[in-house]
Specification:
Blueprint: H1 7-17, E1 21-22, E2 27-28, E3 35-40, E4 45-50, H2 60-72, E5 79-84, H3 97-102
Parallel strand pairs: 4-5
Antiparallel strand pairs: 1-2, 3-4
């Protein structure tokens, strides 16, 4: 990354990632906790670090491509890189309350 972080662009990227829906779970990848990190600098370069619920997830390519395409729709973005990582492993605790509610998990689930 060159330049300083662009917090406004980071927020736009996070909103764009909420438009990408996991086809198996029927909810967006951001609130499912599949996005680990978003950075964006003042030159319009964006880096997204994401995971899947399991290694070998059949939707991996679809989700990674969807994330990349969603971010590219933002006018200030000149370059985007979406890296897939599995460390730390994804757990249901990473989901937002809205995602847990959508999947029928109550607040005490997983504790």
């Amino acid at each position: 990354m060159n330049g300083q972080l662009d917090q406004s662009l980071i927020e736009q990227v996070k909103q764009a990632l909420r438009t990408v829906v996991d086809p198996e779970l029927g909810f967006n990848i951001f609130d499912l906790g599949l996005i680990y990190e978003v950075t964006a600098d003042t030159t319009g370069t964006v880096h997204v670090q994401m995971t899947t619920t399991t290694r070998g997830c059949p939707a991996t390519g679809y989700l990674q491509e969807g994330a990349c395409n969603a971010v590219k729709q933002i006018s200030q973005v000149v370059a985007v890189e979406v890296d897939l990582v599995y460390d730390p492993p994804w757990t249901p605790e990473k989901m937002s309350p809205a995602a847990k509610l959508h999947l029928g998990m109550d607040e005490g689930w997983g504790q």
